[in-house]
């Protein structure tokens, strides 16, 4: 096979140079000899023959060189030669190399860091068997006019779907939304908190994940509520807490006062099917009653489970979808919809199964972060471009220094492509070294980015270690970068006509222009980044400072569920009231209350308002309102003003007519300018025949997020709710003038004093909760500011470089001017204007580019438009100031030029 | 004396193979033979021949062997391998086909 032979020959040529050299000499010698013989035979004298033969053959060395280049190994050798030369050049100029490498490391590193996160969030497949066969079962439905994708099912729905389908190899369920705090048994209240997730017993077999030690769940561990307190722990937990001892099996972990026995350890790198949510352990869904009484294994209407299934081989996604839909429709028909209105009935039966690809796990994190991450990627790409321009300028400056060397090489016969290859090797080597350092930068930077993405409620745990894909990306980026910034300088450097002997190094006019173009590009790109950063920073600030309609500061929140301590029904209500009264007695507490939901908590309760007195909806109108159930003095505690009517009071008890407080938006929506006091409406069959009476109007308070304005909201009174509707646990709000968290010990001891079994959990301040909802904006604000400053810095350096080089070049000119009487001011102006002109052109190009670019982030902004004049003007002024600063130092140097010295310097 | 014509690489390879089809030769001999048979139209110098030898050797079409020349000098004698013979046949056929087609095109008015 000629390929192998080619390879073998080439290798032999590389490693047996001496032998081949002597062989070639011998063969060529024989050739010459034969030629001479021939010439002699044809009548020439011996000396003539030799000369003629030699002339005909040409230079022996040239022939040998031709022979050598006929093999692939010669190309390899030249590359190797180029590399060694490049390394030597870089070593000889440590200053230049250091600056270039650092700049590149920053630029490439930032790109790699963001890419690692993108890789972990969006690209990486789950570490399970055949992830491409996995799908998430969801349904598409209509809610009035809008369609939505529902991802939660009830347990009976899950079992029905699983048992009666023909299209899936298996289906499993897990609770995505709730994780539980778990503690090592016997560690008392101390010891670290771990996260547990409820999963159906077959999830590990469905995923094809086997235990490293011990076992995963057995199929029968799905049956029997509360009968199987077993747990599978993650590899990370096993390492962290148990130091990878096999003795971890059989140890107990407590969740909600129930001990679970560890039966197995999951493999390394497996952290569940939810990217970003790092579970420490998994427990069977049959244990739900013990750990999470709010959900249910039996109620068909409690939708809390996410479903994941594996397609049978040979079944397409569409076939599976259709097959499952048939089963789903049958289940739907079995549900009790007696209380539904016609519209709701229509909506309900419009639900259809959809299958979402689940090869990369559930998509919550992706949806949350894909836009910000892409935006960040665009920013660091811009940053890299700016950094490349800087390095290119450095190379240009160096090229003019190497003018003589290149001229000599050209004169000696080096081809231009060959020289360019050499120069490109240098720049690529620079870029690769920068890239290698960049991987280090990313190694530290990506975890930082993940921390910025997290917040207390939703700790994002991502495995961002650089894997092969990330390294490949870095390598490719470095390669392209090296060629990008090296090409133009290489072209320019080799364009010089050979004219060695000039002592003064003058840059060609074209070289100067290229440098100027690069700086202008830098300024333009930096301006775009600064404007973008300004918009994002101001967005965050606007959100932070916006009035949410309630007191953010000074409010402590905690979760109390009396049923965990054995209190049920009546006694639970009484306990709540008692806690409420006692807490108000704590010194420093201004007001307190409790409620089902708190603002910006990530949860919501919506319903449809019906039969609103005095309001006729048009057909198909969306009558959706949001609800909350609150205790006494709720609005006082949260600082939401009462605008009309009265607050809830002792006269509103379980047997009194239902009353409700609505917010201003709801009042305006349904009643316009008229007073809604005394009007009634209904919320469904459970609100009774006479409906609910409106007794007051409160100010608008933001509900789901700070960005959206307050929706129409109605507040029910917890003491009035029927037992079945009463929430098991409520969140208490405590408003005070002191730091909220300082009240925690007092609250704890108060509860302990009332009943030692009572435990409150999830202590946090309302301010923290609201801040958590802004974590994305905060991340974007912080990072874009950081990158914007970096970009400014790079542009400043670029301007400084070009101006300083200009001054150095024009030293004699400046000397002449000064000798001829030019004032210092004139020289200053001359130099500064060089920098300013470049900056102004850059700004002129940057402004329309920014206008085009920022349009894409319009949806991420709050309180300002992408064309916000204040931001744009501020950014432009900042850039101008930077340009002046960059030009100032070289300008000062120019003034201090001694004319006599300058004139003598040729 | 007819003009000296430049030889394209692939054509040179074919001519060398043809030359060796008759008998094994060393480098100079091949060059001379080509010149002779083409009646001086093609004069190939060392700078083209020897790289061609290396290529052909790597492709497995010719096989070198050190032998003594008439002057008792050591030289590499190249001979055609079986695969080389096959390649010669194939490229000759291809060449004939192409030249016939070109001739047809040129003759058509």
Report on this model:
The complex is a heterodimer of chains A (906) and B (109). With 906 residues, chain A is α+β, with helices and mostly antiparallel strands. Chain A is built from 27 helices and 23 strands. In chain A, strand 1 and strand 2 (146-150) form a beta hairpin. In chain A, helix 1 (2-15) packs across helix 5 (72-92) and helix 17 packs across helix 25. Chain A starts with a helix and ends with a helix. The relative contact order of chain A is 0.09. Chain B has a single domain (12-107), classed as Orthogonal Bundle (Arc Repressor Mutant, subunit A). In chain B, 60% of the residues lie in helices and 15% in strands. Chain B contains 4 helices and 3 strands. Chain B has helices at residues 9-22, 27-37, 46-59, 82-107; strands at residues 25-26, 62-68, 74-80. Chain B has a 3-stranded antiparallel beta sheet. In chain B, strand 2 and strand 3 (74-80) form a beta hairpin. In chain B, helix 1 packs across helix 2, helix 1 (9-22) packs across helix 3 and helix 1 crosses helix 4. Chain B starts with 8 loop residues before the first helix and ends with a helix. The chains are: A alpha+beta (906), B alpha+beta (109). At the A-B interface, helix 1, helix 2 and helix 4 of A face helix 2, helix 3 and strand 3 of B.
Whole-number average pLDDT of chain A? 85
Radius of gyration of chain A: 38 Å
Biggest interface, chains and residues, is: A-B, 28 and 25 residues
Oligomeric category: heterodimer
- Level-1 CATH class name of chain B: Mainly Alpha
Low-confidence stretches of chain B: none
- Taken as a percent bin, the fraction of beta residues of chain B is 5-15%
The CATH homologous superfamily of chain B is named: Winged helix-like DNA-binding domain superfamily/Winged helix DNA-binding domain
**With helices defined by DSSP (H or I, 4 residues minimum), what is the helix count of chain B?**
4
């Amino acid at each position: 096979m000629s390929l192998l032979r080619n390879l073998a020959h080439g290798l032999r040529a590389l490693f047996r140079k001496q032998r081949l050299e002597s062989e070639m000499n011998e063969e060529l010698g024989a050739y010459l000899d034969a030629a001479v013989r021939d010439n002699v035979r044809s009548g020439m004298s011996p000396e003539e023959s030799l000369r003629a033969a030699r002339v005909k053959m040409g230079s022996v060395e040239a022939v040998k060189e031709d022979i050598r280049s006929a093999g692939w190994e010669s190309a390899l050798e030249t590359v190797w030669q180029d590399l060694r030369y490049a390394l030597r050049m870089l070593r000889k100029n440590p200053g230049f190399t250091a600056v270039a490498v650092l700049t590149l490391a920053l630029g490439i590193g930032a790109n790699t860091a963001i890419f690692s996160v993108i890789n972990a969030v969006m690209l990486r497949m789950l570490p399970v068997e055949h992830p491409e066969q996995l799908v998430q079962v969801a349904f598409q439905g209509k809610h009035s006019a809008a369609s939505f994708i529902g991802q939660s099912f009830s347990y009976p729905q899950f079992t029905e779907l699983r048992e009666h389908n023909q299209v899936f190899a298996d289906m499993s369920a897990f609770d995505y939304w709730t994780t539980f705090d778990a503690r090592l048994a016997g560690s008392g209240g101390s010891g670290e908190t771990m996260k547990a997730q409820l999963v159906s017993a077959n999830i590990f077999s469905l995923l094809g994940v086997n235990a490293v030690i011990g076992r995963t769940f057995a199929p029968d561990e799905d049956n029997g509520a509360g009968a199987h307190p077993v747990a599978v722990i993650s590899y990370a937990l096993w390492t962290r807490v148990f130091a990878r001892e096999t003795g971890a099996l059989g140890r107990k972990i407590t969740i909600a006062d129930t001990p679970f026995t560890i039966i197995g350890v999951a493999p390394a790198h497996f952290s569940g099917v939810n990217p970003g949510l790092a579970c420490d352990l998994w427990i069977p869904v049959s244990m739900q009653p013990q750990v999470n009484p709010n959900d249910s294994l039996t109620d068909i209407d409690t939708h809390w489970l996410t479903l994941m299934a594996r397609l049978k081989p040979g079944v397409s996604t569409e076939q599976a979808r259709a097959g499952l839909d048939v089963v789903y429709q049958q289940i739907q028909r079995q549900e009790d919809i007696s209380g539904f209105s016609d519209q709701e009935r229509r909506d309900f039966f419009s639900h259809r199964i959809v299958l979402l690809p689940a090869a990369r796990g559930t998509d919550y994190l992706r949806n949350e972060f894909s836009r910000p991450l892409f935006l960040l990627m665009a920013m660091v790409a811009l940053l890299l471009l700016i950094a490349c321009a800087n390095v290119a300028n450095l190379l240009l400056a160096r090229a003019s220094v190497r003018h003589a060397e290149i001229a000599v090489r050209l004169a000696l016969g080096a081809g231009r492509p060959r020289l360019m290859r050499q120069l490109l090797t240098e720049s690529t080597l620079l870029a690769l070294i920068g890239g290698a350092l960049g991987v280090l930068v990313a190694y530290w930077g990506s975890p930082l980015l993940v921390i910025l993405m997290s917040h207390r409620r939703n700790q994002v745990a991502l495995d961002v270690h650089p894997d092969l894909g990330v390294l490949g990306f870095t390598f490719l980026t470095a390669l392209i970068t090296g060629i990008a910034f090296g090409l133009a300088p290489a072209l320019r450097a080799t364009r010089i006509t050979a004219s060695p002997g000039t002592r003064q190094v003058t840059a060609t006019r074209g070289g100067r222009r290229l440098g100027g173009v690069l700086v202008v590009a830098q300024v333009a790109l930096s301006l775009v980044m600064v404007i973008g950063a300004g918009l994002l920073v101001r967005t965050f600030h606007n959100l932070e400072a916006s009035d949410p309609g309630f007191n953010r500061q000074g409010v402590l929140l905690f979760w109390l569920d009396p049923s965990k301590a054995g209190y049920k029904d009546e006694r639970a209500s009484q306990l709540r009231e008692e806690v409420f009264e006692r807490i108000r007695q704590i010194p420093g507490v201004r007001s307190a209350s409790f409620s089902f939901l708190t603002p910006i908590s990530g949860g919501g309760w919506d319903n449809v308002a019906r039969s609103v007195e005095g309001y006729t909806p048009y057909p198909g109108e969306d009558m959706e309102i949001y609800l909350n159930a609150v205790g006494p003095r709720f609005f006082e505690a949260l600082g939401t003003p009462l605008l009309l009517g009265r607050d809830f009071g002792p006269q509103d008890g379980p047997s009194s007519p239902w009353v409700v407080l609505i917010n201003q938006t709801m009042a305006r929506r349904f009643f316009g300018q008229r007073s809604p006091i005394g009007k009634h409406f209904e919320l469904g069959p459970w609100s009774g025949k006479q409906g609910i009476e409106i007794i007051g109007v409160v100010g608008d308070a933001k509900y789901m997020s700070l960005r959206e304005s307050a929706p129409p909201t109605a507040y029910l009174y917890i003491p009035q709710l029927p037992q079945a509707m009463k929430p098991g646990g409520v969140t208490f709000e405590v408003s005070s003038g002191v730091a909220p968290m300082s009240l925690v010990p007092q609250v704890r001891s108060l509860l302990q004093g009332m009943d030692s079994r009572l435990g409150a959990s999830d202590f946090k301040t309302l301010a923290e909760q609201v801040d958590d909802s802004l974590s994305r904006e905060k991340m974007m604000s912080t990072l874009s500011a950081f990158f914007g400053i970096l970009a400014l810095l790079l542009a400043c350096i670029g301007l400084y470089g070009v101006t300083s080089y200009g001054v150095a070049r024009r030293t004699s000119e400046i000397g002449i001017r000064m000798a001829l009487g030019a004032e210092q001011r004139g020289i200053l102006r001359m130099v500064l204007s060089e920098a300013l002109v470049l900056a102004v052109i850059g700004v002129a190009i940057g402004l329309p580019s920014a206008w085009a670019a920022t349009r894409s982030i319009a949806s991420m902004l709050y309180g300002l438009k992408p064309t916000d004049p204040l931001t744009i003007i501020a950014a432009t002024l900042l850039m101008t100031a930077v340009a002046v600063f960059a030009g100032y130092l070289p300008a000062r140097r120019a003034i201090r030029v001694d004319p006599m010295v300058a004139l003598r310097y040729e | 004396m007819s003009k000296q014509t430049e030889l394209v690489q692939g054509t040179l390879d074919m001519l060398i193979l043809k030359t060796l089809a008759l008998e094994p030769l060393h480098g100079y001999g091949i060059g001379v033979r080509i010149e002779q048979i083409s009646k001086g139209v093609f004069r190939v110098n060392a700078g083209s021949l020897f790289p061609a030898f290396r290529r052909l050797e790597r492709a497995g079409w010719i096989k070198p062997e050190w032998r003594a020349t008439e002057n008792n000098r050591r030289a590499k004698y190249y001979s055609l391998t079986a695969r080389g013979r096959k390649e010669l046949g194939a490229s000759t056929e291809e060449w004939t086909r192409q030249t016939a087609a070109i001739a047809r095109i040129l003759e058509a008015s």
